[in-house]
Amino acid sequence: MLGTGPRAAARQAAVLFTVAGLLALIGILNDPVHTGRLLIVAACDLLLALIGLLVPWRRVARHAPALLGLAGFAVLGLSTWSFGGVAAGTGPFLVLLYAWAALHFPRWILGLYALPATLAYLVPLILTDQPPLVLGSAAVLMPIALAVAFLIEAQARRLRDDRDRLSRIEQWRAAMINTLAHDVRAPLSTVRLVLEEIAEDADQAQVAMVGAALRQTSRIARLADGLLDVQRIDSTGHLKLDRAPHPAHLLVKDTLSYVREDADVRAEVDEALTVYVDKQRFEQILMNLVTNALRYGKAPVIVTFARDATGDRLEVRDHGPGIPDDLRPRLFGQFAVGGEQGVGLGLWIVRQLAVAHGGQATAEAREPGVAMVVTFPPPPVPAPQQ
Fold first, then answer.
1. Angle at 242 between CA 239 and CA 247, to 5 degrees
2. Residue 19: pLDDT above 50?
């Protein structure tokens, strides 16, 4: 029912007419003399509500639901006549109809509404011989209704324009991410092949340098995959994981091999612990957390992995100044940090990958520093063999 377009407009009108029909039925209790007239009003309102709900509005012209508004004005006039010229309920509902129209239709339709709306208000008053003072209320009500409608229409139009602009920006961003990630992969494959060829004939000193280059090449490839992950998460809301049991200490050791050799990063992981995760995504989580700790915190960076009754807990702690208070509420959001040192996607990706595993990512204050904590659910219990 919420939203824009012919279908949403018609369904919202259906709600308004349903309310009007029910109010007409309730009005019978206060005015049993005009029961027959009020039943006709209620029937007309409910019929318009059914039309709003049942007609396939997506197949008709964009502004076709505006016809419901014209019919609604006619029923309003019938309602005023049914109540003997009492317009206490007609005026507010007329403004409400105008407000509904302003949310969905352009100004020229609101202008076209002016004459039928005025007639719907005045004709029943004239037919029931209301005094000039009551007739003169139209001179106040109609300008107010139009002014309210034009204000709502202007605001709604601006919001639609902003939404369209953001949609175009998002399409451009998605195209840029996809293009960048795919274009990075092709030259990386060539670089990796060349480095592997060099490694075959390299001496001991060169092997170490080529090995470091190969590790960084793999890291860049994972960064490209991370960009694609951002796009997949934005478009589908979830990631498909390939979870399996892995030795936790080997996962941590392999991941930390990509960290520069002079970095003071220490690991404390039980060698007997097996973790049930997606290997590539776990490495991505840990690498993002360690890189973030080295970039914004202070050494030493301590990596621990432990298990308790609730599941597995990965913790990456630095000994820096901690998290500024103004950054804390948006720490795990997209582009939360950014600036000259990065684009600010690392912690957002960490949280998304943690949630995909069924866990969560949080930041805990330490003295000194901060600990980034990612929890994982406990590994599944193997089914008993029969």
1. 125
2. yes
More confident residue, 27 or 52: 52
pLDDT in tens, 37-73: 888 888 998 999 999 988 888 888 888 898 998 898 8
**What was the pLDDT predicted at 234?**
58
Asked whether the bond before 368 is cis by omega within 30 degrees of 0, the reply is yes
How long a stretch of residues is the chain?
386
Distance CA 83, CA 86 (A): 6
Give the tokens for residue 366: 């330490």
For the chain, the 3-state helix, strand and coil shares in percent, each to the nearest 5, are 65, 10, 25
pTM value surpassing 0.90: no
Question: What is the number of helices (H) and of strands (E) in the chain?
Answer: 11, 7
Tell me which residue has tokens 């990612």.
Answer: 374
d(CA 149, CA 40): 29
DSSP per position, 103-142: HHS-HHHHHHHHHHHHHHHHHHHHHTT--HHHHTTHHHHH
State the sign of the Cα–Cα–Cα–Cα dihedral 202, 207, 211, 213. Answer: negative
Structure tokens at 194: 């060349």
Structural contact between residues 139 and 88, judged by C-beta atoms closer than 8 angstroms: no
The pLDDT score that the predictor gives to residue 174 is 67
Q: Of the candidates 289, 292, 270, which has an alpha carbon nearest to the alpha carbon of residue 281? A: 289
- Give 331's DSSP letter: T
Residue written as token pair 């003399």: 33
